[in-house]
Amino acid sequence: MIKKAFIILFACFLSTNLFADFQEGKKLFEQKCAECHKGFISFKKLKENFYERNNKLLNLEIPTENMLAWAIMDSSKKIGDPNDVDMRVVEIEEYLKNYLANPDVNNSICDQAALKYYKKKEPLKISDEEAELLAQYFMGYKADRLKNMPKANKELSSNYNEKEILKEAQAQGKHIIVYATSKTCYFCKKMEKDVLNLEDVKETMSEDYIFLKVDVDYVSLPFGLKKHFKGMTPTFFVLTSGGELLNTYPGAWIKSDFLQILKENL
């Protein structure tokens, strides 16, 4: 019993210290880096900027904070082994110190499509302690952002405001999913239980979509979708942030197929 209590206390102590290191790293990033590196911009908008608009949309000369976190943690050139957290911290620290001391585009882990638009970075020396705190910040960035992200899932009431929905979607650079459902729909309930209410699915949707649930027995579909609705529930309508219909998906879907729907509309 005493051993179990010790393990729990140690785990709490470790978690608290990791959180403290992340917060200190975040503060350091805001003090030393945020003036140049812009805050979060959705990857959908970043892809449009670099791959479709030749950087004319955002005119970025330096990567955003989420681009840095993604390059370090999740890109094909990511630093370290995701399965070895302790060693990964050390490797990220070393990369940050070495790269900042001698910024060389040939050693950059940033996306190649974006590199040609970035201005030359001046050398910057950081201490071992600063490198460790920044490493902790980047390692905790994604989890912290998902935890604090405003919930994108909404159930529309009869007095919804289309303009406000579009304003929110455009401000966040997100597409819109309208989910036509009914309280008497068996397949809707099953899909909500098996797919829509799963945490990883909700997190994936929140990253790039505003999700609107509409009970079609009581609330009219927004954005003129009634003319596209064939009466089947569930039906999913995917729209741009401006309210333009991209695709319609009638019927229930398993998790893998629904995630593919989310991916193919970005």
Automatic annotation (TrEMBL):
Keyword Signal: yes
Protein name: Thioredoxin family protein
Signal peptide: 1-20
Classification of source organism: Bacteria, Pseudomonadati, Campylobacterota, Epsilonproteobacteria, Campylobacterales
Stretches assigned to the Cytochrome c domain: 20-142
Keywords from the named record: Heme, Iron, Metal-binding, Signal
InterPro entries, A to Z: Cyt_c-like_dom (IPR009056), Cyt_c-like_dom_sf (IPR036909), Thioredoxin-like_fold (IPR012336), Thioredoxin-like_sf (IPR036249), Thioredoxin_domain (IPR013766)
GO molecular function, one term: metal ion binding
Iron listed as a keyword: yes
Pfam families, per the entry: Thioredoxin_2
Domain Thioredoxin stretches: 137-266
